[in-house]
Structures are given as structure tokens and as C-alpha cells.
Design a protein that fits this description.
The structure holds 2 protein chains of 2 kinds. Chain A has 15 helices and 26 strands. Chain A is of the alpha+beta class. Among the domains of chain A are: 1-49, no CATH class; 146-352, Pnp Oxidase, Chain A (Roll), CATH 2.30.110.10; 382-486, UbiD C-terminal domain-like, CATH 3.40.1670. In chain A, the strands form 6 sheets. In chain A, strands 7, 8, 9, 10, 11, 12, 13, 16, 17 and 20 form a 10-stranded antiparallel sheet that branches. A 5-stranded mixed sheet of chain A has the order 22-23-24-26-25, sandwiched between helices. Chain A is globular, with a radius of gyration of 24 Å. Chain B contains 1 helix and 4 strands, in the order E-E-E-H-E. Chain B has a 3-stranded antiparallel sheet, with no helix packed on it. In chain B, strand 2 and strand 3 form a beta hairpin. Chain B is extended. The chains are: A alpha+beta, B mainly beta. Strand 20 of chain A pairs parallel with strand 4 of chain B.
Chain lengths: 525, 69
Amino acid sequence: MSQLPFWNFLLRINGRGNRIAMYIKRFYHVNVKFHKNSGTHKEVIYMAKAYKDLREFLATLEKEGQLVKIKEEVNPEPSIGAAGRACANMKSKPAVLFEKVKGYKYSVVTNVHGSWQNHALMLGMPKDATIKEQFFELNRRWDKFPVPPVVVPREKAACKENTITENINLFEVLPLYRINDQDGGFFLSKASVITADPEFPNDSNKLNVGTYRIQVKDVDRVGIQALPFHDIAIQLAKAEAVNEPLPIAIALGNAPLVTFMASTPVSYIQNEYEFVGALQDGVPTEITKADTADNLYVPAHAEVVLEGYIMPRVRTCEGPFGEFPGSYSGARLQCEIKITRITHRNNPIFENLYLGMPWTEIDYLMALNTSVPMYKQLKETIPEVQAVNSMYTHGIGEIISVKSRYGGFAKSAAFRMLCTTHGTAYAKIIILVDEFVDPFDLDQVMWALTTRVKPSKDVTVIQNCAGMPLDPSSNPAGMHDKLIIDATTPVAPEPNPRSVELLKPSPETPKWEEIIKNLMAASGK
Amino acid sequence: MKCPRCDSDTVRVMTKSPVGDVWEVYVCDTCCYSWRSTEDINVHDVFKLKPEDICKLQHIPPIPPLKSK
């Protein structure tokens, strides 16, 4: 399918604009908005780009200088994990494609989501879009839910180019490797896992697409971590109660927003594929039926799909595995999956994610898809909330920007956060800042902490609450204290005896930002 | 060959390299630890397991009681 290049331009609506937009949307899988030329100032059109699959995204990353290709043969360990760490340490943080891995047939790519530049490009935005711009763009598209996916017939689904039904050996298709040296084996850290509710097998609202870590136990057997509060555990419990296997499909190497949604906490009855369409700004994603279960649908153009079933009432030793808080979680007894079928594209690319001391790829992947749902929940009852930064360690650290209407008001936003499903367990340190402070700009947040906090009145500790078990400072695991720091400016009736006038920028400043930016860009060529 | 994690001798070859004869992957049938012949394995003491302790590890998620169909 041909691609329209990403560009900004000015257009005048002349009655044909909307029909042109629909034509482009249907055939090129991109969304185009037309804005009226208002005469006094020209409005810039913004075009969201929908990637059909991982390969289209990698092509964009390469074009934008955000993908490097390693052509020399590498050892699976320690090279691929080491490169994942290396990318995370760099300023530009590119994706890295290993074309040749010793002993294996196919290639590996890592750090695909691992930078703000890549994250912006995933959204079809310019690669220098700020975090706040990306946050509000995601927030805007979120409300388009639901956008039903398009079901593509098997013969049109690239993930079905090859089918393996016997002598299943994952190593023949996937260049598996150890990510961190104390991991208990080779893990799939970026799989989108699809399961259905056995009680409502054909209810597509209850079809679950989630990301769960998967340990390779044998050539056709893997372990999976299904934590009790995850949606897959709800479905598994129903199957295990009657000793039935739970059919499962594991999709690897997906279009970037599919992976993004698979790792987003949405409600049990919300279909993640319908969210992908919303985040593609209205362009539906393409799915196809799994081969071994009629009610499971997989991303139609995934690189590799493993199909099988979770064996009921079986738990075997799994882990350790390096987790998102930057430390290993130990060995536990977890579920096992028997793989009975593999389908894959020609020359499949194994996409896998590196996790390490934050920030690594997983932090970028979880950053805004944790922040936006949290923001929406707070904004519903507290419209004074301006933005929410839930990016730190999956929302264990939180920063809320809020307009304090009267003395003590800002703290309500913290209490509201602590009542949300995610916030109850995760949110531990909550910093409140004024409405003019960008919660995504840590320089501004540190400014607020250093100039607006009087510790004797602005710091509150609430003991003995729920906590996140993977937070190593939670003891016993699952219990914690909550810390609220009010870094907002006091508002009446709270006294503010040393009220100060803020230094405001000149109205000419935005003009100079443009001029200087253009001069820098020109001299860079 | 002994398992570097639990010291059992229930180790077998899981697979050989699909291309060339460049490595093998071994797996322990007692504790499910797996490793490649080309790796420099050093399991830290804190992650070592005794076979008799494996059954006492936490079940995730808990196995529900059986219902009659």
C-alpha cells in the first residue's frame, strides 16, 4: 500500500475538502484534517499517520534517523540486551535492528518504542513533539473510542503467509535471547496476548489484548505471568474452575499502537482493538481470526503469531525476570501454555523490549498510556485539573497540575487519584503543582517544589495503605504509605503573607522562538 | 551436567541452533532454568533454588477450587 509522506500544509475548504479527506482516509490509511484559512492567521494542518504493521513503522523510523541496522552477525547474549541498554543511555535512543543473530535464521529489533521521538512518530506527529503535546493529542484521540476494527480474511492477512502445525520449535522462527543476565531463561517481553472470556466466548467487548511476560520453557511450551488483577486472570479463573484449557494467541511484532494499547490499563469490557482505531485518529486497525479458536482475533499483519492454550490448573517454576522497577522479581509458580500452531510472515522480525534501570523502552511505552486514563478520571470530577504526569515507574510517582480554586483545594486531586483503580495500588508519591506548571517539565516541577513547599504544612504522609507489590520499598509487599506534597501557591483562605509577582515573558517571545528555531534548522543542514 | 540454579542433574538439551552447529540450549526439568552453551552463566546466590523449595513458591494466580460442570 503506498504511503503519503508526512507533511504540514495550508488548505482552504472549498466544499470538496471533506470528500478528499474521506478518499485519502479509506485508501491510504491516513487521516487528514482540513482547517479553514481564517484570513488573519493561517492554521497548520496536522495529519495522523496510521501504520499498517511494524514494517511501515520501522521504515518511518529509518527515514527520520531513529533506526540503526546492525549488519554484522552478533551473539544473542549478551549483545542484544546490551544494545537495548545502550540505546536507553543515549540522547537519540534509536530502535536497533540486528539483521544476523548467530545460530538463527531471522532478525531482531529492539527499542522500537524507546524514545519520545519514536513515540511521537508512532502517533504520526513530528519527532520533536513535546511530551505535553503528545499527551494532549492522545487525550483528544482517546475520546474517539470505539472505532471497530476491520476483520480481514485469512488470505489477506500477512501474519498467515506461513503456517507451522507440527514439529513446533519456537527457536526456528524467533531469535530468542536472554534479556538480563539473571533472568531465568529467554523471555518474550513485548507480546500482545489475546484471550476471550469462556463464559461469554463471543462477546468481543470481553476479548482481551494484554501484554504479559512470557518465558520459553521448551520448544513448544512457554510460561506466562497472569497477575490476579489482570484481565487475563479473570478469564483463566473461569476456565480453571471447570478444568478447561484457555485458548490463547500470542502476537509478536505488531503495529506500534497495537502494542501500545496492549499495555494500557483499560476497563475489562473495553476492546483494545477499538482503542487502536481511536488512537489512529479514526482509522480502524486490521485483525483476522486465529486458526485454532474462532472467537480469537489477532492483528492481521503481525510478524509472528503463536497459538495454543493455557493448560488448566498447572503452575511451574517461572522467573526470575528483570522488571520495570529496575530490579528482578524472583521465581514463582506460574501458568504454562502449550503452543500448537505458529503462523508468520516471510522473514519475520522478532520485536522484543529491553527493561532495565529506568528509563528504558518499557518506561516510554507505559508513560502516556498510564497518564491519559488517569487524567480522564480526575478531570471527570475535578475539571480544574490541567494535566497529569503518571510516567514515573508506571505511576508510582505522580505529578498533577491543578488550578486551586480555594485554600486546600489542590489536595482533593490527590485524594481523587488515590481512589482510582490504578492509583489505589500504584500512586505512592503525589506532587501537586499550579495550573501554569507543566507537570511533564521536571525543571518546572523542581521549581515548584523548591519555591512553593513549606514542609511543616505542605507534606502529608498517610500510613498503611495499599501499595504496589513490585515496588521493593513496599513491605509487606502490597502495603505502603502515601506521600502528598502540595507545591501549589497558597490561595485564600490559606494565608500567603509573602505573595510575589511572577516574572512573565514578553508577548514577543513566541515569535522569537520561531525565528531562532528556523535559523537553527537552516544552519544544521 | 548439573543445573547451575538448583544443582539437579535433570538437564537435557532443549534444542540446537537452527542454523549451523553453533550452540545448544539446555533446560533443567526440575526448576525450568534454561541456558545456552555460549553463555557465561553465573546464577547469583539469591536466585539459587533448592529442589525441595520449589513447591513452596507462591502460586500466581492462585488455582481456584474446582466447580462441578
